[in-house]
Structures are given as structure tokens and as C-alpha cells.
Predict the 3D structure of the following.
Amino acid sequence: MTTAQLDKMRLELRRGVLVLAVLAALRERHYGYSLRRHLQDAGIDIDEGTLYPLVRRLAEQGLLDSEWQQGEGRERRYYQISELGAELLTQLTGEWTTLNNALGPLLQPQKTASAKQTEEQG
């Protein structure tokens, strides 16, 4: 597999997870840069060209509340999860947990038939 193919697969895998990560991170109020830094500190690297359109889309869908506020010498738009967003986060968290529990065993290395027999006899 080429690096380009692997990068494309990584992007597909991360795309849906980013919504969950942003909603969870915005249980605390953040402006764009602080949100990006918070996600990076958690191990989720997301570039501005992905984050800002995602946050705007979530706000337009009513999943985030936003307000302009003066901070550190300039006006910034702060975002926080809305009531509707919190409900969705709860539902998505349940879905994530279900999927993660189902994927866990599937991702474990497969045992050979002879190893399984030995384990069952032992």
C-alpha cells in the first residue's frame, strides 16, 4: 500500500471521529485556536482547514452555541456544545462504545486452529 493510499484510509477513519471529538471537547468553552490546541493535547491532530469548517457546520446545525467576546486584546468567537449537541454527544458516545466493544475482539490477532485446540485442552 502506498503512503497516499494509507493517508486516504486514515482520513476516512478519522472523519466521523472528529465530530465526536469536537463535541466532547466543546463541553468546555473554546475559541478556534484553543480548541485546536486542546484536541492536539489529547492526541488528535487536526488542521485549521478541517477544524474551522467543521465547527461552523456544527454551529449551523444547532449543535454548538457561539458568541463573540473580547479576549486577550481582540474579539474571538467562542463555541460551546448546545443542549441539542449534548444530546447528540450522548447518543454518539453510546454508538462509539458499542462499535469499540465490537471491534476490539475483531482486531485481536487470530489464533490458529491448533493453538485454539491446545488452549481448550489445557
User: Anything to note?
Assistant: The radius of gyration is 20 Å. The beta strands are 30-31, 64-71, 74-81.
